[in-house]
């Protein structure tokens, strides 16, 4: 467990931001390679202007993703989803125990149904320790990257408290300075509604996968 926590800390502090930076700069690298191997002398004035405009747009997009609120938003999104999965795990093991004879997951690993209670207990016991560890992890991330995580979360809580619609996703106003894939996340303000949607989607996928596994193990053809 200690090794896993250390790996998670290194991943959040160094690895994830580095991978994000590399992925963000891929369009610039592709454009640099294209401009390097393409002879600009043969280009018309209009084509050169289009290339310059494309280069400027790519650099502005990279600057926005690296210097704006997006890196902090993505980092906190990872933490929020990992916390939600941490709370879901005991219910997942309990689900496997309840449908032990149907899913046969325990049998495939040689685990008896009566022993699954120890797995559930372990998943419950580690929750306070991991949440306590996350306080130091978030503090380290805030100091390392010079982010204002506490202020950001406090502001999101304020936004949620003064929302116009009871269901926040009904709002049509989004922060256009944030890239489109993250606009809905920012709109939900990491509120209880965000965790409700994330948990509902995760549990739906889990039920689908367990159902398919049951059908396969029981050799049941739903189309017959």
Order of helices and strands: HHHHHHHHHH
Number of strands: 0
Structural shape: extended
Biggest sheet character: none
CA-atom Rg in angstroms: 24 Å
Strand content: under 5%
Kindly, what is the distance between the CA atoms of the first and last residues, rounded to a whole number of angstroms? Answer: 46 Å
Residue share in helices? over 70%
Note the total helix count.
10
Description:
With 224 residues, the chain is an all-alpha fold. Helices cover 77% and strands 0% of the residues. The protein has helices at 2-24, 26-37, 45-67, 70-98, 100-103, 105-108, 116-145, 149-161, 180-188, 192-217.
SSE topology sketch:
Layout: H1 2-24, H2 26-37, H3 45-67, H4 70-98, H5 100-103, H6 105-108, H7 116-145, H8 149-161, H9 180-188, H10 192-217
Describe, in short, the structure shown.
This protein has helices at 2-24, 26-37, 45-67, 70-98, 100-103, 105-108, 116-145, 149-161, 180-188, 192-217.
Keywords:
single chain, 224 residues, mainly alpha, 10 helices, 77% helix, extended
């Amino acid at each position: 467990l200690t090794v896993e926590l250390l790996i998670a800390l290194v991943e959040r502090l160094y690895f994830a931001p580095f991978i994000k930076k590399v992925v963000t700069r891929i369009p610039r690298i592709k454009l640099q390679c294209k401009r390097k191997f393409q002879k600009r002398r043969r280009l018309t004035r209009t084509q050169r202007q289009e290339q310059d405009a494309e280069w400027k747009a790519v650099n502005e997009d990279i600057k926005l993703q690296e210097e704006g609120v997006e890196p902090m938003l993505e980092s906190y999104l990872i933490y929020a989803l990992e916390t939600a999965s941490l709370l879901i795990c005991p219910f997942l093991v309990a689900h496997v125990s309840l449908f032990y004879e149907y899913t046969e997951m325990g049998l495939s690993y040689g685990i008896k149904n009566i022993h699954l209670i120890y797995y559930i207990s372990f998943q419950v016991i580690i929750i306070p320790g991991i949440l306590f560890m996350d306080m130091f992890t978030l503090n380290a991330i805030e100091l390392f990257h010079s982010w204002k995580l506490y202020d950001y979360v406090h502001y999101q809580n304020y936004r949620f408290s003064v929302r116009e619609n009871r269901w926040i996703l009904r709002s049509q106003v989004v922060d256009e300075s944030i890239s489109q894939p993250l606009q809905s996340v920012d709109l939900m303000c990491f509120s209880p509604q965000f965790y409700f949607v994330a948990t509902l989607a995760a549990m739906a996928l889990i039920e689908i996968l367990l159902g398919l596994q049951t059908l396969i193990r029981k050799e049941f053809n739903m189309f017959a």
